Each structure stands twice: as structure tokens, then as C-alpha cells.
Batch of 3 targets.
Target 1
Amino acid sequence: MPDRSPYSLPASMITPESVFKNRRQFLRQLGFLGAAAMIGGCDSRTTASAAPGGAASGFNLPPRPSDKFYPAKRNPIYQVADRPETPLKIAGNYNNYYEFSTDKEAVNPLSARLTIDPWTLEVGGLVAKPFKIGFEDLVAKFPLQERVYRMRCVEAWSMVVPWIGFPMRDFIDFCQPLGSARYVRFLSFMKPAEAQGQETNQFSWPYFEGLRLDEARHELSLFVTGIYGKPLPKQMGAPLRAVVPWKYGYKGAKGIVKIEFVEKQPPTFWNELAPDEYGFYSNVNPDRPHPRWSQATERDITNGDRIATLPYNGYASLVASMYKGDEF
Ligand code: MTE
């Protein structure tokens, strides 16, 4: 039996389809407390357990021409010296991807149904010329590299994984955003026939996130297409996700299909649902407790160790100068 987080959705929050499709009405009905109960929770388990059977490998992928780009060369600048890497068996079976399920261990098997080939990325908004690019062309254009980053979820668990991808900055330069562009917005896929959560749970899909343009252009911000020397498995966001390691994990949208450059700070999925709990910036901050739990420590899912949370998830020397310090 999958182990449910104490914060997973109670039956009383399941709203009839006719109601949840009306976002405003749904949010009103839910009230602040209900919205607050949806993500998060320092779940009580000490270690994540791998799903049984073949799904445990996590590499439930179709063969694609871009497979030849893996493994990618490790960039030695981005290492995590003080913590062990989290084995894929753990990282790939403990996933937040509500399009499939709110149960972390159900995401891997359920995401197998998602078709990721072909996959098109659309670029729009304030750019010299809006365009579309197929995933295979994208990966052929931007050389891949491997970087080991810490990843800290707002729920106070964390891991260390070798991502493979390319700097967001390279892609942004290629898009030629106009001078008026100040933010970038990410939109995830909408495929309710393949992602059962989009059909059955009450969130307003698709998932959407955003960054300030200077954050997206920061050297640490990555578009990720692989992990552990191989193409990214579906449960971790294949074929394309964002990784912004000094922010809580939900800032990294998975299954991205659209990138838009905009002038005003864009709305984001969790901030819309519970603005007092999930800010636009969401920089990892051990001194700013979540309204329902402390952010001072985190549980490393590799071994269950409880460790101190670092400001900006350990990347303060690289990113703190972008902020006044009170961004939420
Ligand atoms: N992206 C989409 N499209 N849908 C999601 O539910 N969850 C976010 C983020 N990206 C999410 C998403 C959250 S809350 C976290 S912590 C990370 O993905 C989890 O990434 P992982 O499962 O690869 O560890």
C-alpha cells in the first residue's frame, strides 16, 4: 500500500467536476484553510521507499534520437561535497507531480501513460519573434552538461541529484526577449487523457510558474532534460523541466510546453491557491517558517537524516545579491 502523507487530500475536499472547473468558485468554496491543506506537510516517514517491480528504475521512456547525448559531461563547478547523492531508486519514486497523483509513490507508475514524443515547446510573449521548437531540435541545439544540485521541497524534505540540462540563460538569449520583458512564465502540459490527476483532482490545470528574468538568466538556472546520466524519466518532468536550486522545488515546473516573456509578475500555481503560504519568490529560507511548519531543518530522503536548512539552499553566495532579503 502506498504510504499517504498526512497532508494528502481528505475526501471532504474532493469537489464535483462542475464546481472545480470554475476556479474562482472553487477557491471561494475551499476557503483559505482548505487551500492551505493541499501541498506540503513534513511527512512522518523517515525514508522514502522504492515502488516495487520494474517501475523502480524510473526510466519508462521511448527511444529517441536525442538519447545519444547522454551521459553528458559533468560540470565540475557544480558539486555538492557535503552530502551523498540520492539514488534514483529513491528520487524517482518519491515525486510531486499532481497532474498524476498527490501520492508521491503513485506518480512513477501513473506517469508511464504520458506521451512525450513528439513534444513541442512554444515561445511567446515579449520576444522578437514567437516560435515553436520540437524537443529533439532543442536538445540538438543546446549542449548538455551534468550538474549536481541540492533540491529542497517546501514540504521540508530534500535530495541531491545529478541533473543534465542546459543553462536557461542560453535558451533565453536565443529567444531574444524584448527590453520590456521582466519575467518569464512557464506552462506545463495539459493532457487529461494521459494524466489522471488532471481529470480527477480539483486543481486548475495546467500548472504554471514564473521567474524574474534575472533569476531565469542566473548561472544556476537550468532547463533539465536528463538525470543520472540518462534522459529524464517521466515522473521527474520529462521531457523538459526547470530547476532553480535556491528556491523551493515547486518553482521548477515539469513537463513544460510553453515559455512566455511578460512585463508584469505572472501568477503562479501555488501562490494563486494559497498566497500566504507560497510566495512568488519562494527562496529557501530557514528563518521564515511556513505557516504550518518550520523550515529550519529538512529530511534528506537519501537516508532519513534531519539536517539544517541553509539560506538559499546553500547557494547564498551566488544568488543573495539579487534580493533585498525579504522577498517571499
Ligand atoms: N511541476 C508540475 N507540472 N506539477 C507539479 O505538481 N510539483 C512541484 C515541482 N514541479 C509539480 C511540478 C513540486 S511541489 C516539487 S517539490 C518538484 O516538482 C518535485 O520534483 P521531483 O518529483 O522530481 O522531486
Target 2
Amino acid sequence: MTEDTISQIATARGAGGIGIIRVSGAQALTVARTVFRPAAGGVLGEVAPYTARYGHVMAADGSIIDECVLLYMRAPHSYTGEDTVELQCHGGSIVLREVLLRTWEAGARPAAAGEFTKRAFLSGRLDLARAEGIMQLIAAKSARAAHAARERIGGALSAEITEIRTRLLGLIARIEAGIDFPEDDIPETEAAALAADIAAAAASAARLLAGAETGRILREGIKTVIVGRPNVGKSSLLNALLGTERAIVTDIPGTTRDVIEEELVIAGIPLRLLDTAGLRAAEDAVEQIGVQRTAQHMEDAELILAVFDASMPLTAEDRDLIARLSSVSADIILLCNKADCTPLLTAADFAALDAPVLMISARAGTGLDALRETIAARTATADGGLSDGALPAGERETEALRRTAHHLSEAGAACAAGLGTDFVSIDLRAAYDTLGEILGETVDTDLIDRIFSEFCIGK
Ligand code: GDP
């Protein structure tokens, strides 16, 4: 347990009915006794853990700062694993600041970003993969992402990692026991069994790695860009998908001059949806900038919804867009809008592109379900039967899994080449340690500090 006692505002900034100051550390109750006066009078004596006390937070000069409900959670049964006091005050930013300063006067020091959760990790209450789940739950942009985060906090990813590590440890023990291999060479029969076990561990790691893309998408969303020449119905489509009137819809070409960004959830997948200025030879300077931005967004989009007007044949601008689409790296879905009018476009018009073509009507709302399904299918891939909560989500985890896969393939190769036991066990150990990084077992304090500093203040 760390020595000093920390405090911070634990609730969101801004006005709220209640705001909570969390105080954590060995001196939490001492700090509380200095700042809190029970409503019944006297001083705060013994407090039974997990009971509430009503009173006031007092300034040093004896004046009242705020009314307060005090909660005491005793180590190790608290969020941080340490003695913790929560002061529930009124949720105004000034009053909370005053209460916070008072706890600092009373001996606590300011908690850094993520420090409460870091203490939960250091006290062994949570491994790193689970602690990161807490950050993901707070940042979740969809119900599915929140569900995944909850599973992760419950240990879904940790369990997968631990299972592979346990198997690796068994293999290392078998090799290092060494009794069966007096010559320091692995007998052929044993080598075959070992190779099979290494391959099985590698397959488990590969299965996790295959889910990394879906994990990332769940967390960050897919950067999606709507493109198409003016008046094909891009803003109408955005509005139909959002079910609101966020973008301005008009029939004057070029109304959407800048980029509008919205968040939309489809099958639990957050989409960062950008409605763009039409791609065309813009007449004025402002619109030109919009058109340039559109080209830039197309470059770094992950998904492009290209909209065409089905009620008329392809124009020169449409053909120009099709040509541009053939050189982007994003997934593309081609949408023939205004299908409620007699459609003149067919899939054959887009034969140059390898992308699904959907007939839709943004106005009538038809074809939108098919569009949602097509988008959802993009993230339903390669999850290998893993629950969302077991998907690796961050670059740190993905990179560690890549290195694990590399070490396991080296171990397999060493085994197949009949190299000595040392060669095999060195790589297995490296894989074991690398997986330990995901749980935070084998990472240095600098990295731990960096990871937790990405949490918000008060968490
Ligand atoms: P944008 O310039 O591509 O964003 O196009 P808008 O969304 O502003 O739409 C241009 C015009 O097409 C407006 O008059 C819309 O009402 C009309 N429009 C959009 N979607 C449809 C559709 O599905 N069917 C029909 N008939 N008209 C549509």
C-alpha cells in the first residue's frame, strides 16, 4: 500500500445534484475527522465501515463549506483497496473545489489522473487488463461497447491470457525439468508432442489477435465518410440514419459547405459519420476548401458511403467520384438514393468498383436496414467466438499479442529444427512474459504511470 493519502473530485465537472470528493489512503479517516463535523455535534469518532454519516464540511475557521454525507469504506474492500472516504456534497464546481482544497489542507495530496485506479491495480485488486476495462466503460460510445467493458472488468480478457500463460508454464516446466532428456536434446516423440502444444498455444494467441480489429472498432468507432456530388441526398441520408435534422437539407447544390460530424451506433458499432461538401468544381473559395477537406477525409476514412442519384444517369462528376473511389483504401458501400423515383441506375453502372451496391431512399426510409446490416457485417468478422469483453482493444495489447505470436512461432521452429531445449524454453518464456505485460505483471513503473495517466482526473 502506498504511504500518502490522496483526494480528488470523483464526479464529472460542471453542475450536478451531487458531487463526490474521494479520499483514499491510510489517513483517509484522519483527513475526514479534520474536515467533517457530524450533524449531531462533536467530532467524528469511530465510523462503522459502509455506513453513511450526515454532517458538514467545515473550513479551518469553523465556518461551514457545505452539507455532506460521508461514506467510509475500509481497506481492502474499497475501489482502491485502501481506506477510502467519500464526501458527497452539492455538485457545484466552486463548492467542490473548496471541499477539495480543505482535504488538502487536512493532509491529503492531489490525486493525479487515474491514480485511484492505479492504486487498485497496485494493491492487486485489479490486473491491468481489467483496470483498462474501467476506462473503456467510462468512454464507451455504445451499449455494446459498455457491455464489452463490463465483461473485461469481470476478467474476460484476463482469463484468456491467463489460460495461455498457464499452458506455457506447463510446457516450460516439462522442458526445464530436463529429467527425460539427459542429453539436453528433446527426444523425437517428446518433440512432436511439444510442437503440437506450442502450436495450440499459438492458435489461442492468434485467435485473440484476430479480434483486435473488432475490439478497436468497438472502442473508437469506424471513421465513416459520406461522399457524393451535391444534391444526391447525402444530408438526407445522414438525417435518416440519425433520425434527427442535424444537417441542413436544401435543394440548392453545395449547401453543405463544411464537414458535419455525427456519432451513430449501428449494431452496437459506433460510427463517426462525416457528411462532406460535395465533390465538384467548387465555384467559391469557401466551398473549395470544403471540397479539399472531403478529398482528405476520403484518404483516411475506414468506410465510405458513396451516394448517387438513382433517378438520373451517372454524370461526369459521378464518374469522377467512381474513379477516385477506385484508389482509396477504405471499405466502400455504393448507395443509389432516390430509389422511390424510377431508378435509372443499376449495379452494372458500378462494375468498375468491387463494392456492394444498395438501392435506398433517404426520403422514404427504404433500404436503410440493408445498409445497417452491410455496415454491421464489417465488424462481425474474425472474432473467433470470443466474447466482446475478451477482445484486445488497445495498441499496447495488440502489439504484445503480436510479439507473443512471434515468440511462439520461434519456439515452434526451434522445436521442429531439433535445437536444444534451451532454445525452445527461452522463446516460451519470452511469450509468457509478453502476455504478462497485458495483465501488468511484467511492465515497468514508467509504463504503468503512462497508462494510468490517460485516465481522467478523479478516476
Ligand atoms: P446533398 O446535397 O447530397 O446533401 O442532398 P440533400 O440531402 O440536401 O438532398 C437534395 C434533394 O434531394 C432534396 O430536395 C431532398 O429532399 C431530395 N432527396 C433526398 N433524398 C431523396 C430520396 O430518397 N428520394 C427523393 N425523391 N428525393 C430525395
Target 3
Amino acid sequence: MQRTLVSHALNAASPMDGILLQGWVRTRRDAKAFSFLEINDGSCLKGLQVIVDASLPGYDQIARATTGSSVEIVGRLVPSQGQGQKWELVATSFAVVGDADSTYPLQKKGHTLEFLREIAHIRPRSNLFGAVFRVRSRLAYAIHQFFQERSFVYVHAPIITASDCEGAGELFRVTTLDPKNPPTSPDGSVDFSQDFFAKKTYLTVSGQLEAEVFACALSNVYTFGPTFRAENSHTSRHASEFWMIEPEIAFCALDGNMDLAEEFVKYLIRDARKHCAADLEFFGKFVDKDLLPRLDFVLERPFQRCTYTEAIDILSRSGRNWEHPVSWGANLQSEHERYLAEEHFKCPVTLYNYPRTLKPFYMRVNEDGKTVRAMDLLVPGIGEIIGGSQREERLDVLLENMRQHQLSEKEYAWYIDLRRYGSVPHSGFGLGFERMLMFVTGVANIRDVIPFARTPGTAGF
Ligand code: 4AD
Ligand code: MG
């Protein structure tokens, strides 16, 4: 007998006989002649109501059907007598599959997110996390759909790499050397030529450089995979392991890149609104009352665009007392980004043309020699969700940038070759998948939109 998921049962068009339901007990109420169970299997937010008659074989097991236990029920799907649901299941057979004793940590009362983080192996069974991870799955699918519909080729960038794309030194080393007794060079330093890959290697911070290789061959490509940053940031928006989507487009300048980023973000919101309607309504009710109006507003309005220089001007004239002073050439801090998106523009805004000194070596230098064709997309409530740029396609300028950043021409020879053989203007960006999920669900902490969070000091589970 084939299993019927709760979501399918609840959406049934007509009554059905002999369906098999398998799931976990949320609640049980016993009356004299029968028991009511609510069964959830994670296929949707709602559970299916089940009536088990006391005369049924197997009813002697009913006391074992406690919250958290797993059960298997065969029955008839019939129109529900009760309110709030269309269908209910009248059991014809009932069995407990796995018991859950009274220590089961998800009881009816509400739990704090902090507590749920400590039971990351059980929290997917809660309404909130079930909804978060269904939306995460759907958006992963929508990401592929968006790019495949536009003839982008999916490229798998390596996880282990020898390059530091962002040049921020936030790298996790990958090594098999014995930390107690590493081989050393005559000068006493660790000799990484004897390491597993015969050189220093790291977990990737970005698949961009490899994506550029493929864009300069297959034209439009994207990566979608895990990235790692050993950044000691203790915020609600930084994780040490997160997923990034990085499109890279040949023959494309910064304008086209900004257009694609806007289209992409709107596409994902629209997809979630359509395919995760019940879960988003749940977030709108229990997580963030303004979520749905905000998402709809974002869909309707064109994103604003503003240069870094204009942004500095707006911030300086705001009359605010900034914790971090505002001046041309300084990095924008979270307080500045949020002011721009939440108070000044009141909608997503793409900042572009940042000071050259603030950005990595690969960005295209503008005619002024002082700024580069960088772009950051800021959204209300979160700040930066996308970072990208037009890439430097001129060999001489790239080499000069690399000298300024003290990068080895030998290590990056393959990257430089892209400018030697048929170089083209090209652009791309990275969308932080978890930040996008925070935006779409209203969930305020990045630890709660990734199955098992890795942050400084924490790698449990
Ligand atoms: O701005 P970033 O560092 O850009 C890059 O890595 C480029 N190589 C992307 C490209 O042009 N292909 O990172 C891109 C995005 C950020 O906007 C943010 O959404 C996310 O990745 N991100 C993080 N998300 C969670 N935790 C962190 N520690 C993050 N660091 C960046
Ligand atoms: Mg960035």
C-alpha cells in the first residue's frame, strides 16, 4: 500500500478509501468511545485529524501514541465534521511504530528559538522549522529554475581551493599535517609543500574565480554551493558556512548585472509567495506581522540605484549621530546600510561604484581611477544580501591591481590567462542564500534558516 502524505490528503478532491498515513503524533485527545489524533508528517504545516474508534484492533496501543511518537494508520478519508479542516481520517487500523516518552522535548507550549537551536536534531519537527526548511527547499529549486529558464549553465566550483577570492584573509585552512609535529623548512616555518596538496589550501570563500573561467567559455553560468568564512563576526547575519549563488555573465557590464540581480530577487519572492503560501502566511502571523505587505511592496517597486558617493552624501546630510563616522572611503556599516534601505529609500537599493581601496582585486576600475564597478544590494531589515561587480577584463590593469593587493602572478596564472586569450567584459554577483531566506521568511537570525548552523564557537550536530 502506498503512503499518502498529509499535504495530499488535505488537498484531496474527493473522499478516499484505504489510504495509508505515516507520521508523528502532535496531539491526542481521548473520549469514551474513540480517540482524536493530530498527525503531522512535515509535508505541510497542518496535521491531519484522525479518529480511532475504541473497537478497532490495535486500540489497546493508543496510550502509547504520545506527542512525538510515530504511527501508521490505514483509514477512510471523509469530509470533516470539525471546523478548520476539509478532511479527516477514520482509522480502520492503527499501530504505533516508535514510542516517544515524556522526555520528548517538543511539547505543546511554545519554545524559544534559543532552546530550539540546542535541539537542532528535533527542531525540524516544529511548525516554524518545518516551514523554514520547506521554503528553503522550494527556493533552491526556484534558483535552478530561474537560471535554467535563461540558459545559464550550472557549474560546480571546487570546495577546496588555493586562492582567496575576496582577499579578506577569512580562510579555513585544509591540511592533513600533524599539528604537533609538522614538517618544517630550513627557516623554521611549516613546509606546506609536504602537505596533502603540496601547497597551502583552504575551504572556498566564493566560487567566483572558477565561475569566471566557465563564463569565458559557456557565456552564462552560475554556481550554487557551500562557502566558508573564518570571520569572527558575532551577528545575526553571519555564518561561517553558508550557501551562495553566483551567476557570471560574459559580455555584460554593471548595468546588466544590476538588472539580473533585481529580476532574480523578485523571481524568488514571487515563487515563494505562490508555492509556499501557507508557510509564508504562518510567518506573517507568528514571526513578522509586516512580512507579506513588505514582500508585496518589494515586488511592485523598481529597486533604487545610487552610487556610493551619493550614499555618503545622503548619510552625511541625515542629521544622524552615527556610531561609525561617515566619510568618503570608509566602509559602510550595518547602521548605514539599514538607514539607506529602511529609512531613506524605504525599499531595496543597489549601491554601486565603491572606492577602489575597499574592494577586492578583480573589480573593474572606473575612468576616475578611484572607484570600481562594484554593486551591493541592500534590503530593509537585513542590509546586504548581494555583492557583485563588473570584472577587470584589461590585462594591464588587472596585473596592476594584483600588485597592489600583493597577489602572486604565478598562483593566479590561470585567472590572468582569461585576460590574455579572448578577454571579454563580464560581470557577476553572489547572493547569500540564508540572507535571502531571512528576507523571505522574516526569521531574524541566520542560525534559524540553515539546518545546522556553524558560527564562531559552535559546530554541534
Ligand atoms: O559580498 P561577498 O563577499 O561577495 C563575494 O563573495 C563575491 N565573490 C560574489 C560574486 O561577485 N560572485 O558575498 C556575497 C554575499 C553577501 O552579499 C551576503 O549575502 C553573503 O554572500 N555572505 C554571507 N552570508 C552569511 N554569512 C556570511 N559570513 C556571509 N558573507 C557573505
Ligand atoms: Mg559584500
